[in-house]
Amino acid sequence: MEIFELSKTFPVEERYSLTDQMRRSSRSVCANMAEAWRKRRYQAAFIAKLSDCEAEAAETQVWLKFAVKCHYLESDRAKTIYSTYNQVLSGLVSLIKNPKSWLL
């Protein structure tokens, strides 16, 4: 939600590019996590969805960097969000490496 709120301040010409991409990838992390949780009966499906989460989180970090380089987002604010995504990524990697304790 923080990314959604921040992206409201981006220029109108970015609406269908950076703003849309950043919102989509950040939301996709949560959506794919929900799917992974429901698919935890099947290890391969669980891991596949977690991998999708990981990719979307990393993509969001890239968009954060673009927002800073384009001067749409202050560096300190982006670093805080980027750091949060690093924590999310760390947890996802841990789940991917050790899925058995989460499977049904």
Task: Note down, in words, how this protein is organized.
There is one protein chain. This protein has 104 residues and is mostly helical. Helix content is 77%, strand content 0%. Helix 2 (15-38) runs antiparallel to helix 3 and helix 3 (43-69) runs antiparallel to helix 4.
Which whole number gives the mean pLDDT?
97
Radius of gyration: 15 Å
Helix residue percentage: over 70%
Classify the beta-strand content into a percent band: under 5%
Low-confidence runs (pLDDT<50, min 5 residues)?
A: none
Overall form = elongated
- Note the main sheet: none
The end-to-end distance, rounded to whole angstroms, is 30 Å
Our count of helices gives 4
Q: Which structural class do the helices and strands define?
A: mainly alpha
Helix-strand sequence: HHHH
Secondary structure tally: strands: 0
Give the arrangement of secondary structure elements:
Blueprint: H1 2-7, H2 15-38, H3 43-69, H4 75-97
